[in-house]
Amino acid sequence: MVATRLPRVGVVKLASCDGCQLTLLDLEDELLAIGQRFDIVEFPEATSRRSMGPYDVLLVEGSVSTPEQAEQIVDLRARTKRLVTIGACATAGGIQALRNWSNEPEWRASVYPRPEEVESLATSTPIAEHVTVDAELRGCPIDPHQLLELLTALRIGRRPQLPDEAVCAECKRLGRICVLVAGGTACLGPVTQVGCGALCPAYLRGCYACFGPRDAANTNSLAGWLARDRTEAEVDRLFAGFTGYAPAFREASRRAVEAMQPAARRRRTKGKAT
Question: Which is nearest to 53 in space by CA: 39, 35, 41, 68?
């Protein structure tokens, strides 16, 4: 009897904090079963075992932030059958993508004593802007249950059943009071993909959109509603967070910034007339 070859899995990182990789290691009760069903050949966070591929599945954490990483992700894509991005950095650029709206040389000089020795790109971008991505797990960090669902689906050859609904749906199921409507707290739950268990609203805090915008997110509508009793600058900061470089959130930020410009011109004109 010929033994069935286990799928070869690699776990690698680019620019990130390693939190999403640790989510895999935190699956203590399921970790042994995962090891029995997959051949984990590359996972620097967990083992000294190394492999340059090929892989059946490659889990990639982190954004592309350096020239070396831009070349590395193209090479990795060529070595795997399926590439899965995990976490806000890999799927939306992460918190480091905030530099995409700034002057990168000035930003680098303000952080490092010898900026000329640091090689970095002008932007920090998600993996999908560089190579084809077969599936993505969002979050900061990712949801362990979604990770298990993805691995199970890949192992048995079916489509992963990943949710695409707003955090608000989770709040309703859990019977939580809406912090946005009842408390007036700024919350991105109406446009954010579920996955965290509505953690922040459980403590009467607004959603920070760690899981990024859901596919049908009407961010412009929510931005307009939030702007009724907040400045455009405050609305801009709300969307420019963990997943601020995601297209839907980027568009909401752009509109908020554009709305600030006429107001600034009116103030300048009024000052001259006075």
Answer: 41
